[in-house]
Design goal:
single chain, 195 residues, alpha/beta, 44% helix, 16% strand, hydrolase, LOG
């Protein structure tokens, strides 16, 4: 598929491993070099700020989506291509989905996981056919991926749905997987007894 804009979900903190910030900034740089535009949550702090700085430092375009209530907390990035203000967190996610052709997830906390799983659920339900990738920095998502595999083994996910999660610890490899992605055409529901 053709990808122009990528939504990146990640933490507004830096985490405890210097590799997180380094990889976030590097992802931004790599996106700009490939001509991918960034859509993200607009913050100038943590990994969110690092990925935006990486994109902008290479002359790329970055679009921030920020709810009004967070604007008052003075975390808005001042150097973006465009800032879009919305009323709520739900509207923020909807707008981020509307503006992108794919999603990449970096390390983060509850918000990052919630955004990742909502986009993944929408894909599972056939509401979009966009590739969703995890840049698995320093093995951050290893345990989550094990848990997802357990969901499949226990009959709550089809293997094809587990395979919707594209994973790499390297941005270039992840871009290749995303460009080659084909959304599954099967339904979500699993019959009783896996019949």
């Amino acid at each position: 598929m053709s990808i122009k804009r990528i939504t990146v979900f990640c933490g507004s903190s830096f985490g405890t491993d210097a590799a997180f910030e380094k990889q976030a900034f590097g992802l931004g740089e790599a996106m700009a070099k490939h001509g991918y535009e960034l859509v993200y949550g607009d913050a100038n702090v943590g990994l969110m700020g690092a990925v935006a700085d990486g994109v902008l430092g290479q002359g790329g375009k970055a679009y921030g989506i920020l709810p009004y209530f967070l604007k008052d907390k003075e975390i808005a990035h001042q150097g973006l291509t465009e800032l879009l203000l919305v009323e709520s967190m739900h509207e923020r996610k909807t707008k981020m989905n509307e503006l992108c052709d794919g999603v990449i997830v970096l390390p983060g906390g509850f918000g990052t996981l919630e955004e990742f799983f909502e986009m993944l659920t929408w894909a599972q339900l056939g509401l979009h056919k966009k590739p969703i990738g995890i840049l698995n920095v320093a093995g951050f998502y290893d345990l989550l991926l094990e848990f997802v595999s357990n969901m499949t083994q226990k009959g709550f996910l089809k293997p094809i749905n587990e395979q919707m999660i594209l994973v790499s610890d390297d941005a270039e490899t992840l871009f290749q997987k995303m460009e080659a992605y084909k959304a599954p055409e099967v339904g979500k529901w699993i019959p009783k007894g896996n019949e």
